[in-house]
């Protein structure tokens, strides 16, 4: 039997005192952020959070599966107002709609918190009336740890944290992007480029993996992983525009402009399409472009966008079902649920033709 991971073991591993470990894991003041992160990292590596003592245990009445769950009146939906993660978003808002519909069907309320400071989240919470948490989008480790300490069950949508064990719900990003890339290759394209910051989120990284695997299957060399276009910030509009414009002009001058650009999401694809049209390129005659997510703007674009339809409402509903099951059976194995996403064929992709030159 594996030995129990204690605070003393973590302290010995790091060469600090048990007192420091205790403060760091409990979220108390008196430990600087660098030390706190080291303690959290070590606790995760040693398996502290997978133990029953890894968080505050709820009382027995809170873990009974039947009427006790119904005593909880609401589910906390945490969606920090960063990186366009708001209810008004054409992507995140649809996920929240799915959560709301599923909770309403169960007779449960929803409390949405957009706060991104962990101490404020904990102060707002009344754990006695909360069934659990559904996290939507990127959430900091410190926030998730604060919720984890309370012993609340959690399900994360489109995000996972290596330090916090929890159920997660994603679109099947790898397979979907691989199928989309194979479709474009089947139209004759041999020069394809991925555009989007692969460090932005797990989903973006997985989409890059799907793109790269499809190219390798077809004996097409993918772009170098040091390519700056794999790290471009699409939230900074001016910088994004200047970067894409100069990149396209440089490759055009070298006769190396790709015939297809596969974008990490629809927002990137729509912005890129506008920039290239301004530079005199016709879509898809000169260059094909694809997106991912199928937001409402994708079909309203100047050239309707070929994309992948992420079933956003279904992701929200699935997270609710997973949370209810977790509340009933807290010790069940953690699950990572992948929702199938389908290709939507529109006018932004066509057969391969040599791209027209871009004005410098």
UniProtKB/TrEMBL annotation:
Q: Where is the HTH lacI-type domain?
A: 5-67
Q: Which SMART domains match?
A: HTH_LACI
Listed InterPro entries = HTH_LacI (IPR000843), LacI/GalR-like_sensor (IPR046335), Lambda_DNA-bd_dom_sf (IPR010982), Peripla_BP_I (IPR028082)
Q: Which UniProt keywords apply?
A: DNA-binding, Repressor, Transcription, Transcription regulation
Task: Keyword check for Lipid metabolism, yes or no.
Answer: no
**Any idea which GO molecular function terms this record carries?**
DNA-binding transcription factor activity; transcription cis-regulatory region binding
Keyword Nucleus included in the entry's annotation = no
Could you identify this protein by its name? LacI family transcriptional regulator
